[in-house]
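sanity check both lines:
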Amino acid sequence: HCAVRLADMYRLPLADRSYDTAVLHMVLHYAEDPAGAVIEAARVLRPGGRLVAIDLAAHDRTDLSEKLAHRWAGFSDDTMRRLLTGAGLRFTPPVTVPGALPVRLWPAERPMD
């Protein structure tokens, strides 16, 4: 019961409160408006639904913005907490995937009504 959708992350062609889980996988560091993308993903979650934002942890590799068109040098936990709670989600503890550029998984949950 899983589907992958390619869509404009600021205007998802999905109904409000229609999904149990949404994943933003390695897209926020390209986003002009990361907060807008998180708000839109939160919109489609049912009460109790989960959003997992997977992206680069904050880093100092400025060369990536030129080579790979990254708009953001990763995200700190504080920044992601603000983005997720600003979208009405409950922030839960993140997880790190170690590597040359560590990746973080920031899970959050839409509160029950």
User: Anything to note?
Assistant: The chain has a mean pLDDT of 95. The helical segments are 34-43, 63-68, 77-86. The first strand starts at residue 19 and ends at 25. Strands lie at 19-25, 45-56, 90-91, 95-97, 103-109.
